[in-house]
């Protein structure tokens, strides 16, 4: 290599380090602005002069809600006053009487109606609805839009983040795999990665699945562990990514574990579910639905806890940062807010690892339950 | 309003459970320091299951 | 719960499933397999090396004990040889001594015999010489006595006197 890699590292580090200065500087973007405006009007009508702090709180609330959701464009930060957004648009893919592909810039962050092939679509709270030319959205009594929703296969922010993370994982671990060709001990960053792999193998896979059968599941466990960990850590960056705090993502991950567990299960496992050995027949009949439900609650616990943990972390951090904007006394609020945010951020870095660890641990535990050989005379 | 009371109850229950798990694990580690790794792993698993339960209750009740 | 169901995006789920599936396949093929294989190979190499070292140590110990055994044997052999040599030496000395004694005794014996015979011979000579000498003395005496008549008579008388006394 002609140029030394060191300066590149330094530049990358600085770039990441100064990101928060831009990213959280403005606590609102435009799709939120609209909502905030509505609230503002409503509160104005109801409470008159007491509206201002209410408005701010609602704005922060809406902003956090917006952050937790997936988005059709990648906005790093926005200028509220001028209505400008800094970021890039992502492709929207809709299935609505045929495939429709267009850029999300057509939505103008929910401000205008996008017209594609004679159909009109509008972005409302992160979801795409089919509307008329004017973009009117009708609501039911629970304030939910009743407009038709086309099937949305867009490459959203979360999909892009996931692709980025996957590429990063491939890059890191293929590099590690290649470094073994040079010698038995990895060089460079591989020295950090290898103990983690050994940790997954020796502390998670082997004790839970068993010495003989663990190898088959190592690929899944390692991939899921590093994917979740990296996505969690990416959520800690101020890029505003919240992938593992998205219910669709965790459902998908849990379903993978569920299917792997069910498909690799041996006869004993099914026996224990449908016809529990060692108990009287009436009990067997009662236990069967409970056990079947049990197989479903396991992945459900898996998906809920990952989702809830990450979401809670994001909400707490963003609420603490929002203290700066909601509070009246900036000099008093700023240090408290920054201190608490720093404290929670450190905990969240730990949680990011812990959640990935627990997801992998529980997955291997469930797999281990399904594949282990039962010794009937030992227990029951 | 009832949601919040329910959430509080869930948190109290989960807190008691976590405290019991943590306390027992500490006792066990104090008794057998050489088995600390295994005890920690088991503790984390049980805590995770409990946490999952608590989160499920919170989210279902929301 | 209602909000969660509302939040669930099928598109995201779809993409996540596809990405995860492809990622797992790619990672298994290009990363985990070679990594795990190298790690396992390295661990086996390490355990083999340890085993080999252990064996070498055992061999060394065996060799050492063999050496010691050999050394002890050699030492024992040397001791035996020395002992034998000493015995031979002592025997030789004893043999030489006894032979010398026997020879000496024989020599002394022969010397004694010689001395005895010499003595006897000398005695015999001496006896002869003494007898001849006494004869000569007697002769000369007789000659001297008989030449003087008076002396002869005196002698005879004396002899007679002695005889009377007897």
UniProtKB/TrEMBL annotation, chain A:
Its cellular-component GO annotations read:
plasma membrane; proton-transporting ATP synthase complex
Localization in the cell: Cell membrane; Membrane
**Which residues span the membrane?**
159-177, 217-235, 241-261, 273-290, 302-326, 338-371
Major localisation: membrane
Give the way it sits in the membrane: Multi-pass membrane protein
In terms of SUPFAM superfamilies, this protein maps to:
F1F0 ATP synthase subunit A
Q: What does this protein do?
A: Key component of the proton channel; it plays a direct role in the translocation of protons across the membrane.
What is the designated name of this protein?
Answer: ATP synthase subunit a
Species whose genome carries this gene: Flavobacterium aquaticum
- The protein's gene is named atpB
Automatic annotation (TrEMBL), chain B:
Transmembrane segment boundaries: 43-61
Location relative to the cell: Cell membrane; Membrane
Q: Name one Pfam family in it.
A: ATP-synt_C
Question: What are the protein's UniProt keywords?
Answer: ATP synthesis, Cell membrane, CF(0), Hydrogen ion transport, Ion transport, Lipid-binding, Membrane, Transmembrane, Transmembrane helix, Transport
What Gene Ontology cellular-component terms does the record carry?
plasma membrane; proton-transporting ATP synthase complex; proton-transporting two-sector ATPase complex, proton-transporting domain
The record's SUPFAM superfamilies line, in alphabetical order, gives: F1F0 ATP synthase subunit C (SSF81333)
* Keyword Ligase attached: no
Q: V-ATPase proteolipid subunit C-like domain spans which residues?
A: 6-60
Q: Would you say which domain of life the source belongs to?
A: Bacteria
Which CDD domains does the record match to this protein?
A: ATP-synt_Fo_c (cd18121)
Q: Could you tell me the membrane topology recorded for this protein? A: Multi-pass membrane protein
The protein's matches in InterPro entries, at most eight in alphabetical order, are given as: ATP_synth_csu_bac/chlpt, ATP_synth_F0_csu, ATP_synth_F0_csu_DDCD_BS, ATP_synth_F0_csu_sf, ATPase_proteolipid_c-like_dom, F/V-ATP_Csub_sf
Positions of the record's site feature: Reversibly protonated during proton transport: 51
MF terms from GO for this chain are:
lipid binding; proton-transporting ATP synthase activity, rotational mechanism
Per the record's keyword annotation, is Nuclease included, yes or no?
A: no
Task: State the similarity comment.
Answer: Belongs to the ATPase C chain family.
Function as written in the Swiss-Prot or TrEMBL entry? Key component of the F(0) channel; it plays a direct role in translocation across the membrane. A homomeric c-ring of between 10-14 subunits forms the central stalk rotor element with the F(1) delta and epsilon subunits. F(1)F(0) ATP synthase produces ATP from ADP in the presence of a proton or sodium gradient. F-type ATPases consist of two structural domains, F(1) containing the extramembraneous catalytic core and F(0) containing the membrane proton channel, linked together by a central stalk and a peripheral stalk. During catalysis, ATP synthesis in the catalytic domain of F(1) is coupled via a rotary mechanism of the central stalk subunits to proton translocation.
What name does the UniProt record give this protein?
ATP synthase subunit c
From TrEMBL, chain C:
Coiled coil among keywords: yes
The reply on keyword Membrane is: yes
Q: Where is the protein situated, by its record's location annotation?
A: Cell membrane; Endomembrane system
**For this UniProt entry, which segments traverse the membrane?**
12-32
What Pfam families is this protein classified in?
Answer: ATP-synt_B
- Record keywords, A-Z: ATP synthesis, Cell membrane, CF(0), Coiled coil, Hydrogen ion transport, Ion transport, Membrane, Transmembrane, Transmembrane helix, Transport
Topological relation to the membrane, as annotated? Single-pass membrane protein
- The organism's place on the tree of life at top rank: Bacteria
GO molecular function annotations of the record:
proton-transporting ATP synthase activity, rotational mechanism; proton-transporting ATPase activity, rotational mechanism
Which InterPro entries does the entry link to?
ATP_synth_B-like_membr_sf, ATP_synth_b/b'su_bac/chlpt, ATP_synth_F0_bsu_bac, ATP_synthase_B_chain
Residue runs in coiled coils = 53-91
Q: What does this protein do?
A: F(1)F(0) ATP synthase produces ATP from ADP in the presence of a proton or sodium gradient. F-type ATPases consist of two structural domains, F(1) containing the extramembraneous catalytic core and F(0) containing the membrane proton channel, linked together by a central stalk and a peripheral stalk. During catalysis, ATP synthesis in the catalytic domain of F(1) is coupled via a rotary mechanism of the central stalk subunits to proton translocation.
Q: What is this protein called?
A: ATP synthase subunit b
